[in-house]
Amino acid sequence: MAEAKAHPEEALPFERLAIIGIGLIGSSIALAARRFALARRVVLFDISDEVRREARALGLGDEIASSFAESVDGADAVIICVPVGACGAVVAEIAPHLQQNAIVTDVGSVKGAVIKAVREHLPAHARFVPAHPVAGTENSGPAAGFPSLFVNRWCILTPPNGGDEDATARVRAFWEGMGANVELMSADHHDLVLAVTSHLPHLIAYNIVGTADDLQSVTQSEVIKFSAGGFRDFTRIAASDPTMWRDVFLHNKEAVLEVLARFNEDLSALARAIRWGEGDKLFELFSRTRTIRRGIVNQGQETAEPDFGRRKV
Amino acid sequence: MAEAKAHPEEALPFERLAIIGIGLIGSSIALAARRFALARRVVLFDISDEVRREARALGLGDEIASSFAESVDGADAVIICVPVGACGAVVAEIAPHLQQNAIVTDVGSVKGAVIKAVREHLPAHARFVPAHPVAGTENSGPAAGFPSLFVNRWCILTPPNGGDEDATARVRAFWEGMGANVELMSADHHDLVLAVTSHLPHLIAYNIVGTADDLQSVTQSEVIKFSAGGFRDFTRIAASDPTMWRDVFLHNKEAVLEVLARFNEDLSALARAIRWGEGDKLFELFSRTRTIRRGIVNQGQETAEPDFGRRKV
To answer: Do A289 and B243 lie within an 8 Å CB cutoff?
Structure first.
């Protein structure tokens, strides 16, 4: 094609991208933005000196800024990758330095509370697109990132009615460029869906690992030895970042407690079926739950290999 | 070495081994017994015609018997690999055909109830060694087996005080020959330990998948799409064999309900901490649970790769 002027879809989603917070997600975005050529220049910042040093040593992005101001200076897009409880404070720091029309977006696992916190501090000349990539591993920190983290995962955008369509389209193009599928929904619905598919599972996993650790009648050494009976599957997500998850539960309280109440009702019924020896009820549930896994495997959200492909010998 | 007479440790653990029940465990034992040369002859039997046909087509063992009587005829060892609720009935079937001094053993996930059921039917001239390999995958049936399933997994034996030492030693040698580590404990303690490391995790996983499936406000399609947030980890063990697990819960009722009560207490405290915004309590628990996973990885009971090594791109 001879035309010099690029089609909109051939333009880079962002010119100068600032990533604030260099953990698993921030570092993965930096690596993916480079691999998939999604921004002309990538600048990263983290409030921790040590994390900035580590990011520099890892060669993340084009530049590690040394202040909030420096990181967003001249940036047309800023992605906030910090625990959800810190998003408001970060926006307060960067607000005075945001350029006209800058797109501010985030990756928080909670949307309602983050939107509220960001709005309190965001200047009118910037545009906020709330986003949440449903992807991650149990590892944290700048060295945990990898560029394919978002491939074939979903990224949920929750722009408010009447939000900036151009900003939403560019954030969508950025996530699609990293290999993600993008879906739009309301912030409230997001917070309920994620309470089910992410927050409750983490709560339950943390809880069962804590219970096992506290028991006097069964030693920690026994729990570890015999964990292949099922327990070890729970320990992966119970090894996730404590600060991130503390903030999730504190900021999505209502939805989590609502879903937890449903879980508890069902668990009481199950306990009752066990106590009264109602084998048919148990069998019915245990058969039904197989279907959901099949759906997850069929849609490429899970490996089809037995035992997560752990088998090695 | 010129001596014709083999040392005890060079002898095969079993001459003629009968495996009753050809599921994941039965087929894996047949494959492992061949690969590691642990029995002169391996005979398998299953009450299902279809399973026997499948096992024959897969070439499992040296022979697929066509009746209980035929399978144990001349066998010095019999391994019962059926759901724990069926163990008593199987022993009643084979009892009249067991040879003098035959070793009968099992693989049940519950020991107290199985020991009781087996004792009701076992003839005095046979020797019972209760056993439980803590290994498995979410797949079932004769095609699901593989010979390395037990490598570096634990097999727990729960012989009663004053049990037959020779029989216990031969069963131990058999499991060690398949690559397992063997530990001895009382049946009661086994049932409590496994309630923690296996039965409660399965119950919780089945329950959370059931709750997610039942919700009206979040569709099944949403649960599947956004399962990478944590939920999918639970679906693996919630895809396990429904008959096996129904029987486990019906036969280890007391220990499961006891451990579940502890889990519920802890979960109530956690819900309260969320409701009242007690971030420090959440952070303390979420930090502590990382240690257990580290122990499991360090002891080779889990892969160290993030996300179970699912990352593929």
So the answer is: no
